[in-house]
């Protein structure tokens, strides 16, 4: 009795088995990602445990590693993603060709894309989505009965205090012929931001620990058109900032983005943390940046609630402080609009809708409007400390 073995069949079966293994791994990663999202939406306790015990591992390992590079690795990954998408379009357009090499190229391309997608979803979940469902900074450090709403008198007093601080600080800096502040401490900007955050961490343990070096965005003109001063990259755990914006925004923006690295993903709380970090600094310019960047939130709330009498007796912001309360200088806006191939109004509209949609998708029901909730946190803080 003889035994016949079909070698090509065995080889083909081995190939099929090998191809199944990557697919199983991808499906497993995707299943873990779905599980983590479902768990985070249903358990504050899990999210709090994750931020306290697991997130620091990422910050102290690959965030520390990416900090070695002087450029924003996250920005380079976005550029790489755009290149991959462009390559996909080319491959799609060549799809009518039946050559075997092209078929192989298409299979390899979609294999690479599928790996990227599953890892992007996983990392976004680990370093961003879970954070939206954890206990807030306010619930951790502020008494509940003292952070639920506020009256007009409290709002009036808060605005008066901020304006008085700004009017004094606006006179403390050297200015050029255009009235713009001359800031000669840019080399120390990063270290002062990190030191301010670490100092804040002595009072609020959730902010303690390692902070990576902030990074400049090379294509800041695109950020400017989106009206973005900074961005936190979950994929590399980097704090990035727009280099086109007026210098008064930089300390506050960097501290805001660094706050996200500690798990405080809500924008109003990152605003509040940045305010505290700046105003607790001994550096007057940092204090100025802190007060200046919350002025609009407080003033808008005040304007919406003040009657004619209250509005008329308010303290007016000095010309210097009002001039410093800008995103970009006129000269910077001119450069941005000249160098960008896109229309600023269109880019800003699309960006706002995407940002608002992302926040709503993650459970922030009022979307972009949530930024202004910093006013309630400021009133609580002012009532406790008087700044």
Describe what you observe in this structure:
The chain is an all-alpha fold and 387 residues long. The longest helix has 36 residues, at 7-42. The termini are far apart. The relative contact order is 0.12. Helix 8 crosses helix 11 and helix 11 (267-279) runs parallel beside helix 17 (374-385). It has 17 helices and 3 strands. The protein is globular and about 80 Å long. It has a 3-stranded mixed sheet with strand order 1-3-2. It has helices at 7-42, 44-53, 55-66, 73-93, 100-129, 137-141, 152-169, 189-203, 220-225, 250-260, 267-279, 284-305, 308-312, 319-324, 330-339, 344-361, 374-385; strands spanning 215-216, 230-233, 238-241. Helix content is 65%, strand content 3%.
